[in-house]
Structure prediction request, 273 residues.
Amino acid sequence: MTSDNLPSLRETLDAHGLLAKKSFGQHFLLDLNVTRKIVRLAGPFEGRAVIEVGPGPGGLTRALLESDAGQVVLVEKDPRFLPLLAELDDGTGRLVTVEADALKVDEAALVAGPAHVVSNLPYNVGTPLLIKWITGPWMPQALTLMFQKEVAERIVAEAGDDAYGRLAVIAQAVCEARIVMHLPAAAFTPPPKVASAVVHLIPRPDRPDRATLKRLETVTAAAFGQRRKMLRSSLKQLGGAALCEAAGVDPDNRAEVIDGAGFLRLAQALGQG
Prediction:
């Protein structure tokens, strides 16, 4: 499929009288050159399925349908966009649209076999969705996701960086993560108040099991919840200095200087306590 014989996204929105909803955190990408670049960065898909959350008027969807993706599954919460997305359906069954809240949907029931997630995520649910995908029972083949620039920087931050925190530790324990594209606010309709960035995440073959991940979430919540305190104090309820020493971590350090490997050792030590 190509988008050359379709009306432009702006014409489609105007024809349906649709505007972005602030309550849904919607900001649309209407430039197909940009959406095609995002899809190129996400691929190749080699016939695997792709899930897109919050397709809105379908800018990214059009680019996905032009790609080597297999089935393209759209999860859209806003029913106003279902008629627009239906116009992209060629009747072959390749495009599937599900009206649902992506935070509640069971991805394993939507696709068979390995699948990618490629989305310009609604700003108000971007972080919870990422945590759901990387810590839940269903693991994508890869994720290519648009976030607010500040959130993207928090995902890829390293120990000692200002943006370093729980999100970086958990995301990088599970995935290799890097920013692959920056977009100014002016690229969106309506323009948000902040710039955006695309993060590409590939699950690690040696990622922790779910039990260890749960403990990692517990340890990082305590450590970064009181990030100005030494670990012997912030982790007091979990074992404090004794836990740190069992993990080979200096209890007099603060969370912001402990790298991901150190936090994983703390999570493992917590499981042995």
About this structure: The CA atoms of residues 170 and 195 lie 24 Å apart. The two ends are 56 Å apart (CA to CA). The mean pLDDT is 92. The beta strands are 28-29, 49-53, 72-76, 95-99, 115-120, 142-148, 175-183, 188-189, 196-203.
